[in-house]
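Sharing a chain and its predicted structure for anyone who wants a worked example. Both blocks are below, sequence first, tokens second.
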Amino acid sequence: IYVFVSYDDVNFIKGGWINRNKICVQGKEMLFQIPLKKQSPFKKINEIKIDCHSRSMRKLTKTLQSTYSKSKYKNEVLGILEDMFKKKPDLISELALDSIRSFCNYLDIEVDLKTSSYEDYKKTDDRVENLVNICEKENIKHYINPIGGQKLYDKDVFKSHGLTLSFLQGTPSLSIIDVCMNNSVEKIKENLRDFKLV
């Protein structure tokens, strides 16, 4: 079983991917975002509130419904999204974690989801040390980071702490929403095996 730790007690990055992703509209990539209240890089991710009553939130729902109206899997996927939005999460960190949980359940992916702000991890001002502390607390020997992390983390540093660091290189795609709208669960599971660790 995999352990996924939602790192929600670090600073929010404006223009990052915490509240943004891409779907395909009329054959073209379109960036969508969850509207936020008073987003700031001086706030932690778990302090950033969602603007549930924003016009852009209602527009997003309509865009998803119209864009994928002919999708074979629209009922299942729109149902997942409706269930998430119905809860009216207050924080973007809550919605982000719930989206991971919901789609893991849909795809029957077994994962132990944890939230860094709720766990007793030793916090420091050093991001590498924080990741090492999380791995040690969870008794993890192999830490996997997205491929973009190659610019941030050094394998030798992790090795000095007895940890293997790998970077996940998968097939480029749009958001999980788009993937699930256009593919069966069986096909997605097959595609998920098409990755390599570097």
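Comments welcome. Helices lie at 55-67, 74-86, 92-106, 127-137, 155-159, 176-182, 185-192.
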